[in-house]
Amino acid sequence: MIKFYAVLIHVLLWLKVAGSPMCGGIFLAGLICIARDQVSLPLVATMGGIGFVIGAFWAERVRKNMGLIAFHGRLIVHPEIDGACVKPMKRF
Predict the structure, then answer these.
(1) Disulfide engineering: 84 pairs with which of 2, 5, 38, 79, CB 3.0-4.6 Å?
(2) pLDDT tens digits, residue range 52-75?
(3) What interhelical angle do 2-36 and 41-65 show, nearest 10?
């Protein structure tokens, strides 16, 4: 049962890495649709599909080289996110 959860977590982390370029492609397609003043579902699907393919290659590269858990761990403990780089304000 524990192996099932470990595999599920790895799949979700892979989808998280692969899904971010897909969201970017859909966002870009949305901007194009706004500029054209017309919603084109084939354009949105194509841009989303291209983004997912790029994201899948990126997720596989991360999985093989660094590991998905290590990749997300490095993102989570980045000092700019947890405020370690912020200098305290001086009191007068």
Answers:
(1) 79
(2) 999 999 999 999 998 988 888 887
(3) 140
Identity of the amino acid at 74: R
Q: Of 20, 45, 18, whose CA–CA distance to 32 is shortest?
A: 45
| Residue that has been written with the tokens 């997720």 in this structure | 59
Residue 81 tokens, joined: 């996110």
Q: Residue ranges of the alpha helices (H) in 37-89? A: 41-65, 68-76
Single-letter residue type at 76: I
Please check whether residue 48 is in contact with residue 29, taking contact to mean a CB–CB distance below 8 angstroms: yes
> What pTM was computed for the model?
0.74
